[in-house]
């Protein structure tokens, strides 16, 4: 049994998508980040970076004590290796898949997250930041568009790279992007959206970075106003 500590952000949704694609036995445990539940001491034992998602594997392969993990990329790789699914064993195909997983974790997610923040959550418009992150997100969409030319999926076959990237393309409008500019990316995105597990993942899930998002000052403080904890 896997306990998935979850909130329906792009990073949370990519782990939920893996659970549904793989059929692995799991339990979703909501962590309301707008209410500060990510700072609860019990959660911090699992996720010391106070971010979702996080997981506890109660049946790790070594037969030992429950194994805890945070960081969504590490979690996807761990689960793919545990289940033997969505990560090729061929050395070249595996390397291809992992480099695109890490590309999402290190590039697409942070940059799209920044433009989402400055477009939707920032209390005031900051033109330089909006221009900077819109342009960089546009560049990254272009990188992915070129990679998808002649391929059904990012690394060839359907993999954790696709699961990682898709939730960060879903809010493309709020990121200031049009998929009309990226025909290969649009083709892949539309095909992904029809997968049964994707449809189930997004059932009743609120839209991340929705233009009409309302954030109270208390929620803004909880989400964006945290510094290093006092020792």
What can you see in these coordinates?
With 231 residues, the protein is an alpha+beta fold. It folds into two domains: 2-86, Glutaredoxin (3-Layer(aba) Sandwich), CATH 3.40.30; 91-201, Glutathione S-transferase Yfyf (Class Pi), Chain A, domain 2, CATH 1.20.1050. The chain has helices at 10-22, 41-46, 72-83, 91-121, 127-148, 160-169, 183-193, 196-201, 217-224; strands at 2-6, 26-30, 54-57, 67-70. Strands 2-1-3-4 form a four-stranded mixed sheet, with helices on one face. Helix 1 links the parallel strand 1 (2-6) and strand 2 (26-30). It is globular.
Short description:
The protein has 231 residues and is α+β, with helices and mostly antiparallel strands.
What topology does this entry show?
Elements: E1 2-6, H1 10-22, E2 26-30, H2 41-46, E3 54-57, E4 67-70, H3 72-83, H4 91-121, H5 127-148, H6 160-169, H7 183-193, H8 196-201, H9 217-224
Parallel strand pairs: 1-2
Antiparallel strand pairs: 1-3, 3-4
The SSE order reads: EHEHEEHHHHHHH
Spatial separation of the terminal alpha carbons:
34 Å
* Extended strand count: 4
Structural class determined from secondary elements: alpha+beta
**What about the largest sheet?**
4 strands, mixed
Low-confidence spans: none
Sheet with the most strands: spatial strand order: 2-1-3-4
Query: Per the principal axes of the C-alpha atoms, what is the gross shape?
Result: globular
What percent of residues are in strands? 5-15%
């Amino acid at each position: 049994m896997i306990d998935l500590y979850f909130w329906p952000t792009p990073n949370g949704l990519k782990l939920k998508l893996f659970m549904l694609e793989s059929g692995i036995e799991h339990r979703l445990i909501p962590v309301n980040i707008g209410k500060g539940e990510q700072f609860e001491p019990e959660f911090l034992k699992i996720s010391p970076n106070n971010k979702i998602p996080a997981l506890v594997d109660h049946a790790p392969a070594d037969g030992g004590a429950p194994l805890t993990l945070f960081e969504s990329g590490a979690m996807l790789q761990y689960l793919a290796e545990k289940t033997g699914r969505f990560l090729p064993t061929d050395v070249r195909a595996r390397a291809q898949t992992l480099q695109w997983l890490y590309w999402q974790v290190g590039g697409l997610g942070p940059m799209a997250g920044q433009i989402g923040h400055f477009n939707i959550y920032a209390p005031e418009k900051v033109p330089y930041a909006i221009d900077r992150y819109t342009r960089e997100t546009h560049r990254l969409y272009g990188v992915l568009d070129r990679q998808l030319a002649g391929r059904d999926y990012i690394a060839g076959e359907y993999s954790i790279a696709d699961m990682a990237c898709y939730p960060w393309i879903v809010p493309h409008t709020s990121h200031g992007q049009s998929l009309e500019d990226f025909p290969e990316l649009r083709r892949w995105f539309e095909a992904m959206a029809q997968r049964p597990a994707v449809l189930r993942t997004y059932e009743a899930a609120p839209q991340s970075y929705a233009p009409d998002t309302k954030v109270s000052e208390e929620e803004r403080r909880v989400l964006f106003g945290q510094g290093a904890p006092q020792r």
